[in-house]
Amino acid sequence: MMGHELQPFLQNDMVCLRPLQAKDFVPLYRVASDASIWEQHPDKKRHTLSGFVKFFSESIKSNGALWIEDVENGKCIGSSRFKVLNDFPNAVEIGWTFLSRKYWGGTHNFAIKQLMLDHAFQYFKEVVLFVDFENVRSLKAVEKLGRMLSEELRFKKEITKGNDNITYRFQKKHSD
């Protein structure tokens, strides 16, 4: 869809999201260098310098990556990304999200995804998230997100044979 913005500036009272920039490498690597962040992820080497260099380079080239900071202290807490999907008409993917362990299990992930979903639905009819079967932590986080947004969004979980991911699809319940 033309006219969409994949690297917006988004903010609420908890988090600020902005386009990821080359200058963000060192502070973002400080967060990503915690091996426990990646222990359930398919790419378990992202905490290493070489693994993160590859991830960061792909993030910058994607033109959809976002820096996430805590509004309260101004510190980097992670990153996420938008990607237009050719296989899903009029849809955008939200993925590649990681957060500092300090922010796990609380309300920051919801605050981040709420901002990203609200932004995405200005341009797309559907938002898709892919989560690896073995990433239990992320699976639980997306399931929680789906429950929290069930009043306003349709939330569909799809399992495809031969695929390593579970596909989660979000759509607005009511058209504006």
From TrEMBL:
Alphabetical UniProt keywords: Transferase
SUPFAM superfamilies: Acyl-CoA N-acyltransferases (Nat)
Any GO MF annotation of the entry: acyltransferase activity, transferring groups other than amino-acyl groups
InterPro entries named among the record's database cross-references: Acyl_CoA_acyltransferase, GNAT_dom
Domain of life of the organism encoding this protein: Bacteria
Presence of the UniProt keyword ATP-binding in the record: no
Tagged with keyword Transferase: yes
Protein's name according to its UniProt entry: N-acetyltransferase
The N-acetyltransferase domain, residue ranges: 15-175
PANTHER family: BLL6696 PROTEIN (PTHR43610), N-ACETYLTRANSFERASE DOMAIN-CONTAINING PROTEIN (PTHR43610:SF1)
Organism of origin: Flagellimonas allohymeniacidonis
